[in-house]
Amino acid sequence: MKGDRFSFKRFTVVQSDCAMKVGTDGVLIGAWAQGAPRILDVGTGTGLMALMMAQRFAEAQVWGIDVDTAACRQAAENFAASPFSDRLHIVENSLQNFCRTWDGEAFGSIVCNPPFFVDSLVCKDERRTIARHDKNLSFNDLFSCSKPLLKADGRLTVIVPSEVLSMITASAAFAGFSLVARCDIRTVARKQPRRHLLSFSLNPTADLVFEDRLLQEADGSRSKWYSQLMADFYL
């Protein structure tokens, strides 16, 4: 990373105008989520997850939506500068409006790094508040608005901290989604999971696929799992 640029193997993310920068949560979703011919990245920000999905799934058309004008402009620039520019699309819109106005085909994969601070003190930066708090996109809205956009056999994938795990799974169940894949993320083996990758479906499979993974070895180096997951992305 250099200043406001984060370079991956096949693309660079410029993030000077975005409230939320490139972080571990976003790259985890981008490298772990299931793909499809049509993919939607909700709250795309820099466009990071959309770019990763476009790289992983070479035939996919990928849409990124966001309510932040500056973020949309920067995501569009990042898309245009990438090798996948002909398959990436940016839309400035909320998910609530997008689900009402979208007249295209349903998506086989929806990814979102959702705002996860609920009923907590907001930060002084309004754009960062929107990105990190559920002020503009509650968990209930995420599922209810994704439902008409998702194919029957599609997947909605998110990442959340442990503090809201029960809340988001309850919101999913209320909207008719079932949890079909879960990956608990530990920083190191001795610590409890702090983050959870979750994949939901409207057409559940019989068994939940569960993983428990580490980001770091005891010596602070990247774990074998994390290194393999990011092999096509990190320099």
Overview of the molecule:
- The chain has helices at residues 24-32, 48-56, 69-80, 95-101, 126-132, 139-146, 165-174, 224-229; strands at residues 5-7, 12-14, 38-42, 61-66, 88-92, 107-112, 150-161, 178-186, 195-201, 209-214.
- It is α/β, with parallel strands linked by helices and 235 residues long.
Radius of gyration: 17 Å
Share of residues in helices: 25-40%
Strand content: 25-35%
Shape: globular
Query: Helical region count?
Result: 8
Largest sheet: 8 strands, mixed
Run of helices and strands: EEHEHEHEHEHHEHEEEH
Q: What's the end-to-end separation, in Å?
A: 10 Å
Keywords:
eight-stranded mixed beta sheet; two-stranded antiparallel ribbon; single chain; alpha/beta
Quick gist of this model?
The chain contains 8 helices and 10 strands.
Map the helices and strands:
Elements: E1 5-7, E2 12-14, H1 24-32, E3 38-42, H2 48-56, E4 61-66, H3 69-80, E5 88-92, H4 95-101, E6 107-112, H5 126-132, H6 139-146, E7 150-161, H7 165-174, E8 178-186, E9 195-201, E10 209-214, H8 224-229
Parallel strand pairs: 3-4, 3-6, 4-5, 6-7, 8-10
Antiparallel strand pairs: 1-2, 7-9, 8-9
Helix pairs in contact: 1-2, 4-6, 6-7
